[in-house]
């Protein structure tokens, strides 16, 4: 429907080659978890290295009433989900399952559409000094 949100995903990784599946951890209690549980699709937008703008924007989280894309240019992807044309790459996914892992929920998504910027670039990656806190 018209319900939507956005978030900065934690611990994103490939989970399967055939079919292509990714996993993403979402902090428990985020609105995104509710939407995915209801069957919503999602997109992973890979931001460019060296520009913390998107990380700062999406890292704070959003209430159901807030527009998560305020001030950003967005397009509709093949699945109808919002995608960021400024991304290096976009993977559009249909949820295929989840499980609770401590204070996060790990969602699996079958990749149903993908695109990348032809000129490429290095992806933004944030690695903490250790995995015990952040």
Question: How would you summarize this macromolecular structure in one to three sentences?
Answer:
This protein has helices at 31-37, 53-59; strands at 10-16, 21-27, 42-46, 75-76, 82-83, 89-101, 104-116.
Write up this protein.
The protein has 134 residues and is mainly beta. The protein is 10% helix and 37% strand. The protein has two helices and seven strands, in the order ββαβαββββ. The protein has helices at 31-37, 53-59, and strands spanning 10-16, 21-27, 42-46, 75-76, 82-83, 89-101, 104-116. It starts with 9 loop residues before the first strand and ends in an 18-residue tail after the last strand. The relative contact order is 0.25. The model has no long low-confidence stretch (mean pLDDT 88).
């Amino acid at each position: 429907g018209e319900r939507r949100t956005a978030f900065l995903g934690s611990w994103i990784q490939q989970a399967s080659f055939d079919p292509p599946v990714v996993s993403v951890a979402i902090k428990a209690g985020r609105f995104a978890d509710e939407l995915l549980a209801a069957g919503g699709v999602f997109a992973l937008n890979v931001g460019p290295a060296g520009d913390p703008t998107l990380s700062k924007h999406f890292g704070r989280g959003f209430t159901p009433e807030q527009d998560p894309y305020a001030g950003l240019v967005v397009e509709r992807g093949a699945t109808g989900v919002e995608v960021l044309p400024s991304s290096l790459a976009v993977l559009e996914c249909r949820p295929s399952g989840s499980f609770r892992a401590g204070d996060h929920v790990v969602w699996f998504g079958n990749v149903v559409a993908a695109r990348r910027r032809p000129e490429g670039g290095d992806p933004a990656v944030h690695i903490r000094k250790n995995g015990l806190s952040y």
